[in-house]
Amino acid sequence: MKSKELYPRAFSRHAIVYQSRLEQIMCRGESAGRMRALDLLDARPGMRILDLACGPGTLSRRLAAAVSPGGDVRGVDLAPGMIELAQALRLPSARFELMDIEQLAFDDCFFDAAICGHGFQFASDLPRALSEARRVLRPRGRLSASVPIGSRGESVWIQLYTVIDRWVPPAPEAFDQAPTRATVQDAGAFRQAALEAGFESATVELIEEEMRWESAEQLVALFMSWVDCATRIEGISEVRRQAMMDDAVMTLRQDHPGQIVTKGRNHVLLAVA
Asked: What pTM did the predictor assign?
């Protein structure tokens, strides 16, 4: 299956839960990668900013406040469900459109800056997505982007995926994803991709973050709606799904009877046009 067939549908189906969890971690300052991308963008009043793979508008809302008065934020995403939630925010300084980040419907040099919070890893053609971002930026315009680079080696995730693997088949794979995933996981390759897309300079930072979960029940409930899990369990019955969740909760409780703290790692790109 192609990534543009898999991910927009999956994110649309689980948009509300995604929005709720992302707002929680942003408000608590736990999404350090996305927060760093916002800091690097240095949004100011009057700026015109593009939010690539904007999701439910979580970053756009913060940017819209930063560019007021006189500024403008445009959010684009391929998941209709995400765009619907973003439009429902009714932000006076922001507009949202269903659009492919690899084929932007904007004029050259249209934006002062662009941001992508945890979105480039889903691009089927990362070089093209970066080139499009470069095309629509004015000279010296900034692109900041965060991408998660994996935390499955942590014991909590090993336990969770071990349970899921017992109950359901492997997740459907996007066969066109391998080059993109390999690039964003490698800081040097990610930086080089930005330079080859036409940016004058680029740096990539490693940003670590901690996320807190009230209990095993909360973590498992939210985990069920994440794309890599949700796409695996959509075809199973409610009875089997609940049994799997109970199994996961009991497994986590053995080592984590109370609050659970997990760590994440991100690459954050700053590229200057």
From this structure: 0.92
